[in-house]
Amino acid sequence: MTSILSARVIALVGLALAIVYPLVVPNDYFIYVMALAFIFAIATIGLNLILGYTGQLNLAHAGFMAIGAYTVGLLTVDYGVPFWLALFLSGIVAAAMGFLAGIVSLRLRADYFAIFTLCVGLIIWLMIEKWDWLTHGVVGVIGIPAPSPIGPIRFDTPLANYYLVLAVLVLALFVMDRIVHSLLGRAFMAIRNGEGLAEALGIPLMRTKVTAFVISTAYAGYAGGLYAGFVRFIGPQIASEANAFDMIAFILVGGLGTLSGPVLGAVALTWATQSLQFLQDYRLLVFGPLLIILVMFLPKGIIGTLKARQAREAGAKAAAARGAAKAERSPAHA
Amino acid sequence: MNLSLFVQQILNGLTLGSVYALVALGLTLVYGILHIPNFSHGALFTAGAYVAFFIVGSLGANYWVGLIGAALATAAIAMLSERLVFSRLRDSPPLHDMIAAIGLLLFIEAVAHAIWGADFRRLAPPYPGIMRVAGTVLPIQRALIIAGAIGLMVALHLFLRRTVTGSTIVAMAQNREGASLVGIDLTRVSLITFAISGALAAIAAVLFAPINLISPGMGNLVILKAFVIIILGGMGSVPGAILGGMIIGFAESFGAFYISTDLKDIIAFALLVAILSLRPQGLFPAPAR
């Protein structure tokens, strides 16, 4: 019971820090970078559902984020659709594409699935680049409108956008918390731990995996839609594998299959790369070995390792308490 | 339609197919050891091309010296990756191997980028002439690629079938526990397999470089196509890798010519999506172990 309470306390403290953050930093740059980190965190929370909880390596996640971003960009710029409607559709379009990709690819073995999604990501990128009349090709979509005002609240400053992104992030975490603690979430983890066993327990493999994939791509789509409204410019680059690999690194740093891991990883790594600006060109020189070292020496990530330690300490404490109780009882027996 | 143009496409398809098949062969052999797709294989292709560029371009050596040097150096890189990374992850879930392989890919590409920059580099062909085949011209480099690939495939086949070392690789791919039980050394077989796969990737890259360009990202499309090929041909199957390589090579050369050059690179992936939609187990599934 205490651990649940403390988790809630930690979450509230984190939220309070995030709310106060823009009021104490010196300029908009810090707000801008943090908001971007939050947007990628939303996408990464989605990726964690399929990668961390269900155990399938999806390498097309950046592609689905691009689909969401282009949904907002193209609908608002070329077709005059109001921003909020376009944002609402961004996750749905991405999830629909995810459903189509999922019903084909999730029948495959895990390693085929990784290759297949790598190809899907590349196809999405090539489509965006070559399909000029729809996507503006390599030029990208320019002049995406900022989110339109809701009543008195306007979204033309980085600060207002920061709070919008933060609100969506909190909602995304809350929904994910409900999902992974539901029966469905248990089914995802059962599949990760062993497909054969999960199937023997009566979990419909295909339907469950497709559900996880569709939810995860919806997250990617909404993150992409927010990205389009926040950065106001998108190009094919957003679909690149490099973005997908970044998100995998976020999850690994934070912890596979943990709720807060992706957020922690996204924030920590985004700031690490920002402070290593002079390394911009050589970023991957550090990133590649980082991925390897993490899977070799810290496969559970920061949150996962902390949790494991907490569990060990709790176990040791319980054992000690049992031992003490026994010691107290034994003289009485004697 | 024009017959000589048709022959031209066949020759193009053979050239591309040969390069793809060589890369896919190494990939499929390593799959027998790792049981995961080695995403870092494309980086070995890139590494081979750059080593040859360094030996030929900067040191002024002969093309063939460059080819052999690249094969040796890349084999060494592949063996190092096996020792430092993959052998240590043998007991981890496959997901971890795949992520580590991606890390290796990013790292090797970044090293090439840091040393040689993002510019495209050229490797001069050793014999710049052309020859005439069935009424069309064939650059000698393309003939070299086709002949080299066929020679290496035959050599590899003989090595796997006729030598004890080759048999140990096949045995390990079929059943790791069984192979270990009859006294086959897993470490030795892994190292040999990685060395062969690295050398094949490097040779493919050095043969291909004179008719293409060298850049840090040159391995990306090739490796993706190699993945498509080993799925088509069945993971771990040597004849499947060769046949799959040729299928993709021909699909691309004819697709580029009769459909659109813009779509050339999508064809392989569209083919993969189509085939896996109809046959999730691949075209030639390996027999159950």
Can you tag this structure with a few keywords?
heterodimer; A: 334 residues; mainly alpha; 14 helices; 2 strands; 1% strand; B: 289 residues; ABC transporter involved in vitamin B12 uptake, BtuC; two-stranded antiparallel ribbon; 11 helices; 73% helix
Provide a descriptive summary of the structure in words.
The complex is a heterodimer of chains A (334) and B (289). Chain A has 334 residues and is mainly α. Chain A has 14 helices and 2 strands. In chain A, 78% of the residues lie in helices and 1% in strands. In chain A, strands 1-2 form a two-stranded antiparallel sheet. In chain A, helix 2 crosses helix 12 and helix 3 crosses helix 10. By secondary structure, chain B is mainly alpha-helical. Chain B has 11 helices and 2 strands, in the order H-H-H-H-E-E-H-H-H-H-H-H-H. In chain B, helix 6 crosses helix 8, helix 9 packs across helix 10 and helix 9 packs parallel to helix 11. Chains A and B meet through helix 5, helix 11 and helix 13 of A and helix 4, helix 9 and helix 11 of B.
How many beta-strand elements of chain B? 2
Residues in helix, % of chain B: over 70%
Beta content of chain B comes to under 5%
**Tally of individual domains of chain B:** 1
What portion of the residues of chain A fall into strands of 2 or more residues?
under 5%
For the largest beta-sheet of chain B, the strand count, sense and barrel status come to: 2 strands, antiparallel
Count of beta strands of chain A: 2
What is the CA-atom radius of gyration of chain B, in angstroms? 19 Å
- Biggest interchain interface, per-side counts: A-B, 39 and 45 residues
